[in-house]
Structure formats: structure tokens, C-alpha cells
């Protein structure tokens, strides 16, 4: 059975959570491989409405093992809070495994995230202040703390002390804050260690065994291609790779096993946080689209910030699908456009007096202007449609035109936030 990666083709919030929930039923293992609780997947199912930040989206499906892989930025408090929220709403206890190689988001990561954004003032990145950038910086500086370190008190004290040497200089002299001691961090961490102990294991081995049994595995990406630190809108990117290719690394899977990549994209664009966004609209058009997408949560699932809105961007999406290596596309939120009689779509960028189909590097992207074409709208409620042929002809045309522009087959069309509101073109 193949490994399927479900990833975002754009800026995040494409509806990956819903698509993972749709596809999780057929999988044995669902794995998160990057990022932390800095973004949210919204899932609406028979148990209610959930914003998952750290838990894999397979937690609602029976018989699924949910893995938090080595590449994840793991925050113990957030994990326990989310798990309890599920149990409180009557979701049967999910089977969750946390990699002993995953590293911990520590209290000082959140502190530094907030202090740095404050220091930057108007130049800030719009961080969710969940400590993700300081976490990955420490990981690559090799001063991070792995979950396995929690179970060796001396090693933990040593790791924390080593990290705090430099951090305390910054705290005192850059940010004017009191220094921290390893001792004050230890006690809560040791308590957390006990709470998460039942879930911690060698997940690389678990995945290897699952592969050898031929079980199907879903790797679930967070955010989208354009937030990738190498291929996205740097520096308005996130701090870990959002690409399907990184699933092999962050999960611990042989790259050749990832044979299906489902890229998720919305039928229009939306984006939380700062950075260039070529098809952005504002004023009444944006307010209307944001309001119509209200049920689609056009307010960030983690931050509650209103999302920036724009028309579908074929340049960004074609590029996003390419860097993801998309083999299939899921187009979400088509229902939201049902109020328009004509729908603008961006087919190219105008850059320095010429038209381009290529997605430019950040230094040029600021100067790019959208070249728009208009497709006919359908002005009908399509939320009850389950067959592609039953969609209004203009809606079918819209999907097929987008498919032609991005060059990858749109297999799924999502027509509402619920799990059953999906058209599978097979
Ligand atoms: P993710 O991080 O990619 O999972 O995306 P989010 O959960 O942040 O945002 C997607 C939003 O769209 C959520 O509120 C979903 O419930 C909602 N959603 C997903 N698919 C559809 C759809 O086809 N139609 C509508 N109206 N909402 C959808």
C-alpha cells in the first residue's frame, strides 16, 4: 500500500484537515511530520467541531494509529489540552504515539517568540507566538531537547543548562528580562514526562513495521507550499519544510514509499499572516468573500485573526503543486463562491513589464501584479451535490479550467466543511 501525503498547495488553511479526515478512514496510520501547534486544522464531524493543532487528523477514525513524528515541534501542554478536549466531547480515546526523537517546545521558546515580535514592532512577521521559530533555531543550533531526554534527569538538566547559557545573555541584555535557571524548568517538565509517557515510543520502527505489513499510511502536512522556508515566500515562511518531500524526513519514511501526494487548494485564496499575496482583494469584495466563507472559518484556526482574501491564483497554485510533487488535487470551498455571477481568476503575473507563468522569488514577488480572467459563476447552493455531473455546468467548467491551469488532476471537489460534503471524481 502506498504512503499518501496530504499537503497544502498555497499559504495554509486550504482544508487539509478535512481532507485527511475524509481519507483517514481507509488508513491504518496518520502521521504529523513537521510544524507544531502554530496552525490549526478544522474538522467537523459527528462529534462536533474541532480545531486540531498538534494531533493528527486521524484521531476520529477507529483503528487508526496517530503518530507525532520526529520532525514535529512538540508542546506537552498543548498536546494534553487537545486530547482532553476530544475526550470531553465524547470522542473515543484515540491511539496516539509520540516519537521519542521529537523535540520539545519549551517555555523559553514561547517567551523568545513574543519578545522578538515585540522588539521588531512594525517589522514583525506576524508570528503565532507559539515558539516555533525559536524552537527550530535551537534544533539546528543543536541545543534542543528531545522527548527521550525527559526520562534521564541528569541529561535533561545538562541540556537545559547548556541552552540557557546563551539565552540568558539575550534575555538580560537584549530584552531586559530576568535570567532563567534549569532548575525552575525541570519540575514541570518531569511532571509532563510522566503524563505523556504512555504515548512515547520509537515511531520509526512502528512505521517500518506498518510498511512491512503493507498498511496504508497518511502523512499530514501543516501550512502550505508557499510557507516552505526554501521554496516559499521567505522570510514570511514557517520554520520547517511544508513539502511532501520532507514527510520522508520528518516522519521517518523511505522517500520512495511516498507515491501519492494529494495537494489541497481552495477555490479562491486566503492567507493568514504577513507576506506578499498577489491576488489579495480588499474592501467590500474581501469582506463579502470572508463573510461567505464564514462557515469555512475565514478566521485563523489558531489565532482567530481574519484571513486575507484573494481570487484563485493559478500561478502560485501550479507552483505549489509542482514543489509538492502533487499527483492529485483536492479543491475545497467551491460552495463558498456560489454567490458570484462572475469569478475572477489569476492566470499569470505581470512583472517588470512582462507576463510570467512562473512564481517569482520573494525579492521580485512584491512587484508582481495579477493578470485576471473572469469565469462565469453558478449562483446556486451546491452543498448537497455529491456527483460531479450534478454540479451546475458553470461550476464544472470552473473546476475543469482550474485543473487545466494547474496541470494536475482535481480528483476531489469539496462542497462544504462536513466530511460527507465531498465529490470524488475517482
Ligand atoms: P487546514 O489547516 O488546511 O486544515 O485548513 P483550516 O482548517 O484552517 O481551514 C479550512 C476551513 O475550511 C475550515 O474551517 C474547514 O471546516 C473549512 N472547509 C474545508 N472544506 C470546506 C469546503 O469545501 N467548504 C466550506 N464551506 N468549508 C470548508
Textual characterization of the structure:
Helix 3 (107-120) crosses helix 4 (132-141). The mean pLDDT is 93. The protein is built from twelve helices and 21 strands. With 426 residues, the protein is α/β, with parallel strands linked by helices. The chain is globular. Strand 17 (342-351) and strand 18 (354-356) form a beta hairpin. It has a ten-stranded mixed beta sheet, sandwiched between helices. The chain has three domains: 3-102 and 200-262, Adenylosuccinate Synthetase, Chain A, domain 1 (3-Layer(aba) Sandwich), CATH 3.40.440; 104-196, Orthogonal Bundle (Adenylosuccinate Synthetase, subunit A, domain 2), CATH 1.10.300.10; 266-424, Adenylosuccinate Synthetase, Chain A, domain 3 (Alpha-Beta Complex). The structure holds guanosine-5'-diphosphate (GDP).
Note the gap between the termini.
18 Å
Determine the strand fraction and express it as a percent band: 15-25%
Number of helices: 12
Number of strands: 21
Q: What is the total number of structural domains?
A: 3
Please name the CATH architecture of the largest domain.
Answer: 3-Layer(aba) Sandwich
Arrangement of strands in the largest sheet: 9-7-5-2-10-1-11-16-20-21
Helix content class: 25-40%
What is this entry, summarized?
The protein is an alpha/beta fold and 426 residues long.
Salient structural properties:
426 residues; alpha/beta; Adenylosuccinate Synthetase, Chain A, domain 1; Adenylosuccinate Synthetase, subunit A, domain 2; Adenylosuccinate Synthetase, Chain A, domain 3; 3 domains; ten-stranded mixed beta sheet; four-stranded mixed beta sheet; binds guanosine-5'-diphosphate
